Amino acid sequence: MDCTLRPAEAGDSPHIMRMIRELAEYEKIPHFMKLTEEVLHRDGFGETPWFRCVVAELPEKSKSEAGVPFAGYALFVNSYSSWTGRTLHLEDLYVSPKFRGHGLGRRLMKKVAQEGVRSGCSHIHLSVLKWNTPAISLYHSLGAENLTEEPGYQVMIFPEEALRNMAIEDPQ
Amino acid sequence: MDCTLRPAEAGDSPHIMRMIRELAEYEKIPHFMKLTEEVLHRDGFGETPWFRCVVAELPEKSKSEAGVPFAGYALFVNSYSSWTGRTLHLEDLYVSPKFRGHGLGRRLMKKVAQEGVRSGCSHIHLSVLKWNTPAISLYHSLGAENLTEEPGYQVMIFPEEALRNMAIEDPQ
How far is CA A1 from CA A4, A58, A107, in A? Predict the structure, then answer.
């Protein structure tokens, strides 16, 4: 698996979008998927990027055989901890099924870590589905700790409707 | 509680740092605290801010009595979901003990929500300690859902040592 890992470029959007859809299928939540290629492109490669992405590009000779240019990707954002300062939040780590078992997930994680160290970050945080044991094993093998066990963090979300209701000004 | 909610400014750093320390005491993790006022100031108010912050400023007449200018703050970052696009991540929501019980946490959340809607965000996510029931009740009352219950997300972190080890290049 002689892939080249590099920062994503604007022209990569359609292929990243395809892999995001594959990941949503794997996570069994394709019905939650609202993102479009157009929005992904605007948010990732506009004047103020909202995320950062690394792609695993196949060697030229493998691209036509595989029918796709990339074997996987990692999507992450700059984040902040009020205990330790700059951090990265890993949103997605994905390797297409036929390219698994060659250490590509580990290589992508290492690349994200290098980006983090270069940016002066002190740690990387992420949320992972409890049944996704291959991902959890990978993260543990690279030194990750489960904060839901100890000290006991839970993940909460304000969905779009709650967000919009909250944003309404109270009557004076 | 006639506080004014406004975006934090560079001169607010010492007071935000004080409230961050108070929050770390409340969360029983003051030993994890490595952030300094200098770093907070650089990261929040430099050329490329790493976080956004809203402060609840006391009325002038209350400042000298209270000995502090702010009753609380919310610290948040731009983040991204590969399902829905732009989001906010809420890192901290804090109201000093003597100013609690006047709906200030709710007002701060509403202000963060307004910032989110203005930025084109689709939701707000956060992590909260399981025993912090006042915060969880507030979030639930404003429409938040617990993703650790369903679909079952857990929070993981690569601490600094793991991050630095990962970032080392494998021998070729």
Answer: 9, 8, 11
